[in-house]
Amino acid sequence: MHPxxxxxxxxxxxxxQAGFRTSLVNASSEAQNAYMSTTPNRWTKASVYPxxxxxxDDDPRNTDGRSPxxxxxxxxxxxxxxxxxxxxxxxxxxxxxxxMRSVPPSTMSLLGLLRHMVEVERDWxxxxxxxxxxxSLYGGLDAAFSTSGADADMLARTWSDLAAEQATTDAxxxxxxxxxxxxxxxxxxxxxxxxxxIEEYARHCGHADLLRECIDGRTGQ
Length: 221
What we know:
Layout: H1 6-26, H2 29-38, H3 41-46, H4 70-90, H5 95-98, H6 110-128, H7 152-173, E1 182-183, E2 188-189, H8 190-216
Helix pairs in contact: 4-8, 6-7, 6-8
């Protein structure tokens, strides 16, 4: 299902809701009461459905049910939607929580993921503009995962850097209407680069799902 598809999203919401209701009906009254008493208020107050992140009508990935026009726009929409998903998974947490390595033995954290994506976006741009290579911001793709000394300033800088790098990469890719155009020293096609970008964000959104759930139990979407 396309993550921003109105039809697919509402269909999935209905399936999730039906499954949720069925599971509660089949559960004992004690289990039902235990579930509702342990559900954080922010879930049920902020969402129509207990396990959803935001109300379906407020989902920033909503596309009004209209499919994107053409291959390039489809690729961009997937990238935008996965970026939004990653951001949603980080909302409501402070720097200390975002820096938590919440799924041991992995040393990954949500803040580390954000910093990694800053470096990845910059790396992608360097693939396109091989003659104007820009240096790493945080010491490289792997070093970016280090969040030692995380504080509000580091978090603010990370968000700012990520927005800037995303905009720069998007602007460079937008220069090439032909998705078959070969770029940089590696001669990667625009199409392949875009698919790789989707793959990278989708993979790390999966990581973010688990990391966030282990921090405060919050799941959904």
